[in-house]
Amino acid sequence: MNNNIVSLDKNRPPIICVAGHIDHGKTTLLQCISGVQNPQKEYGGITQHIKSYYINTEYGVMTFLDTPGHFAFNSNRENCIKISDIVLIVISLEDGIKPQTLESIILAKKFNVPIIIGLNKSDKIDNLLEKSDKILNDLMTHDIIAEKWGGDTLVVSFSAKTMDGINNLLSTLKLQADMVDLKIYNKTTCGIILENRMDVNKGYVTTLILKDGILSKGQVVNISGNLYKIKNIFTVENKPIDLVSPSLPVNIIGINTNVEIGDNFIVVPEYKKAKKKFTGVSNKNNDALTFYNVENVLEEMKKINNKKINIILKVDVQGSLKVVRDVLENLSTESIKIVLVKCDVGTFNESDVELSKIVNGLMLGFNISIDSKIKKLCAAENIAIHLFNVIYDVLDFMKEQVESEKIVDKKPELIGIAEVKKVFNHKDIVIAGCIVTSGKIRVLSNVKVLRNNNLIYEGVIESIKVFKNEAKEVKAKNECGVIIKKYNKLQINDILEIY
């Protein structure tokens, strides 16, 4: 590739993050600017994903990032603002300043990104000057002072619905962009990860945006110490391309793992030398995965003593993962712990169903579809998969689950009975040689120890072994070794009731 393909004197298009409170008209504005006539709407009529627009306006090319306005998507907003050159904070003239308006202002200041205030829905306001002045006055309490009042913040009123004032908004964005350093130095090809998702046909599809240099097919990128070769490049409209210029958001095939939003990438010019330098192991924790090893799952769950709701979570894109996970974890109480046994991008598979059986976990899917094979397997195992497309619905469902655990003390279901035939002592542990007389016995199941029809002890099955191998479940008429957590007084002929 010719590294001189980009002039050192050329500026890249500005990256503009459109942020603000939910329903203040951010997405409508971008559809207006981009000329999209019949946009594909998201579920619930709210933005839940980062969307990028590369728009050729009469004031030059501009890249816009549309961010969700719902409070739960704060991490998405932060990542977008952090990588932007300008933050356009959209405020509804009807509603004024709201919580996510203030959050966006705080984040823009945190990352030292210039702010433009866009006052939307001017078509619905009779006393426009009075209403806009009130909002600007309120903004002053947050150290945002409009240019007309002696400050340095540019303010534009417009209507995304009627397009009145849109031309003025674009010229204001161009004016602000001219005051920002957007020079292409063309020394190192680098950029930032915007999104990551699993496609059933293509594998991992990574959305990224270039900040400097030229990216092309066949190049190798370094992300957190891991090296990946770029196989294919597509625009966000899914058109194949060979070269990527700065500020152009694109989808990449070849980054075959769940890299995180906000991660930086850099092109490695000499792959063979780089391969020796980088071990291919990232020091960074990957939020995408909590546990994959079942034994690790069981060991971690043994440490949790209070009541818990176990969850296997699958989502559509990396950006949704942290959002849904944070929503779920924030529902934990002092008495009830939400345990995310496994979190991942993609759809459910057979191992997820098996894991759900082992830990008695809820299977939650966000904006994903399930293939017929998994549906049949879940039906056969009597396991429900709960699918949601809107974050509100996830929140409402899990609140109901937590409340039901608080209010209803569910009567335990007897799933199996085992009889102790032999007792073995190994160090400080007692292992009961049992035969399962009915039903089945599972690791982490609750157990009652009965002796002469009297209840002796209640606890948890810590471990099951068949011969010398760890087992997760043993069915009727089979023998196994059983260890009950923190109990070493088992005797021959004791009866174990498994719940």
Description of the molecule:
With 499 residues, the protein is an alpha+beta fold. The protein has four domains: 10-178, Rossmann fold (3-Layer(aba) Sandwich), CATH 3.40.50.300; 190-277, Beta Barrel (Elongation Factor Tu (Ef-tu), domain 3), CATH 2.40.30; 294-407, 3-Layer(aba) Sandwich (Rossmann fold); 416-498, Elongation Factor Tu (Ef-tu), domain 3, CATH 2.40.30.10. It has helices spanning 26-34, 74-83, 99-110, 128-140, 166-178, 271-277, 294-302, 318-329, 350-359, 372-381, 391-407; strands at 15-20, 51-57, 60-66, 86-92, 115-120, 154-157, 190-199, 203-212, 215-216, 220-223, 226-229, 232-235, 240-241, 243-244, 249-253, 264-268, 307-315, 336-345, 362-366, 385-388, 416-426, 429-442, 446-451, 454-466, 469-470, 473-475, 479-484, 495-498. The strands form five sheets. The chain has an eight-stranded antiparallel beta sheet with strand order 11-10-16-7-8-15-12-13, with helices on both faces. The protein has a six-stranded mixed beta sheet with strand order 2-3-1-4-5-6, with helices on both faces. Strand 4 (86-92), helix 3 and strand 5 (115-120) form a beta-alpha-beta unit.
